[in-house]
Design goal:
alpha+beta, 3 strands
């Protein structure tokens, strides 16, 4: 997560008030960016890629290599090479 620094006083101490961040020292208000954070679900990605190996056998080798990039010891993926 990126550290937030107050542009007015340089502080990194904030409190949340009424859904916005407020600098503890100079009281400058900052609206939180509503961009969703990216979450990496490795186990879910591997499961999805294994399903693709089964459903798309012509591309199984490509998907298996992607799985092995994530989990080099994945025995199920090795079967598709």
């Amino acid at each position: 997560m990126e550290a937030i620094i107050c542009q007015r006083c340089g502080s990194s101490d904030f409190i949340k008030e009424k859904g916005i961040l407020v600098c503890k020292y100079c009281r400058t208000e900052y609206v939180k960016d509503d961009k969703p954070e990216t979450v990496i679900e490795i186990n879910e990605d591997v499961k999805r890629l294994l399903e693709k190996c089964k459903k798309e056998p012509q591309k199984a080798r490509k998907y298996a290599n992607l799985i092995l990039d994530i989990d080099p010891m994945n025995e199920e993926a090795k079967k598709y090479l």
